[in-house]
Amino acid sequence: MSKRRDPNPEFDLFIPALGDLPLKDQREVMERPFFSLQKRKRLKPIEYRSPDGEAWVRVQAIPDYGMATIWDADILIWAASTLNRMKQQGLNDLPRTLTTTPYDLLRAIKRSTGGRDYQELQAALLRLQTTSITTSIRATKRRQKAGFNWLDSWTFDTDADTEQPRGMTLTLSDWVYEGIVNEKSLLTMHPDYFLLSGGLERALYRIARKHAGSQRGGWTCRVEVLRDKTGSDAKPKEFNRMLRRAIEADQLPDYGMALTETADKSPAVLFRLRGEAEALEFAEKMRAEEERRARMVADRQRADQVDAHMDRLAGRR
């Protein structure tokens, strides 16, 4: 898989570009499988339970529209980033309904702005509104589960004469809104995330950002657990093949991936910040070079000792 090229590389003074502010997403959503990883319609529910059994997620779609995809989630990232900016600017009463234009939104999430792109935007809004989620995450002790859709409602205004899209609104569900306005729940993302073309790569980045973060030495996850956390519906053998291909492509912003093993020899993936990975690789090369030189010196010393011993034997004769 590779990254898409940014369809709008030029700066536009009239667009409130997300590149000018930290890109934000909810950490609770990033580490668990809330979205379909495929662009084709998915109707099969996502069923997830954490290894410790504490957290669980169930995502269901309706046949007319299918499940919200990980690309549809870009709209929620835009919403989280926009609300976070408002909060930083000192606005206390953050709105649950956001107003923008389809053009501005598409540009902000690094999409093209052709006719089909507006149709796909409306389809994404429908999936976000109709996909239903039930989860134990953020539920109180008295309320062991919460149910919601990503969006409560949305509008899409078009010009009566030209039928061109003009304005739009989207209203976040309470669960989404509460997660966004709680500052501790947000993580900063790399802006190139929007350019990742593969659904699995996007899920891997989100998981890496949440768990590996900037911790020294990175973070290791068993492949079996990783498959569950992505929500992939691929068979284990196919998932392993896709995972190896993603590791070889090495396209994740900020993070490198490497196949490894856990202490019990289970196949796993190590996620590590690129800067640290490069530094450790350089250190490993330097260590190997020092060992090589030490071996050469030792070999030379042994050779000198042998020569000296042979000279002494020759002198006795």
Low-confidence stretches: 10-17
Enumerate how many helices there are, as a single number: 9
| Share of helical residues | 40-55%
Count of DSSP E strands? 12
Quote the distance from N terminus to C terminus: 74 Å
Major sheet summary line: 4 strands, antiparallel
Topology as a string of helices (H) and strands (E): EHEEHEHHEEEEHEHEHHEEH
The computed structural class is alpha+beta
Which keywords apply here?
single chain; three-stranded antiparallel beta sheet; alpha+beta; 9 helices; four-stranded antiparallel beta sheet; 317 residues; Arc Repressor Mutant, subunit A
How would you describe what is shown here?
The chain has 2 domains: 1-197, no CATH class; 199-317, Orthogonal Bundle (Arc Repressor Mutant, subunit A), CATH 1.10.10. It is 41% helix and 20% strand. The chain is built from 9 helices and 12 strands. The protein has helices at 27-30, 73-88, 102-108, 115-130, 174-181, 199-211, 223-230, 236-249, 274-316, and strands at 23-26, 46-49, 56-60, 97-100, 132-135, 146-149, 151-158, 165-172, 186-189, 219-222, 255-261, 267-273. The longest helix is centred in the last third of the chain and has 43 residues, at 274-316.
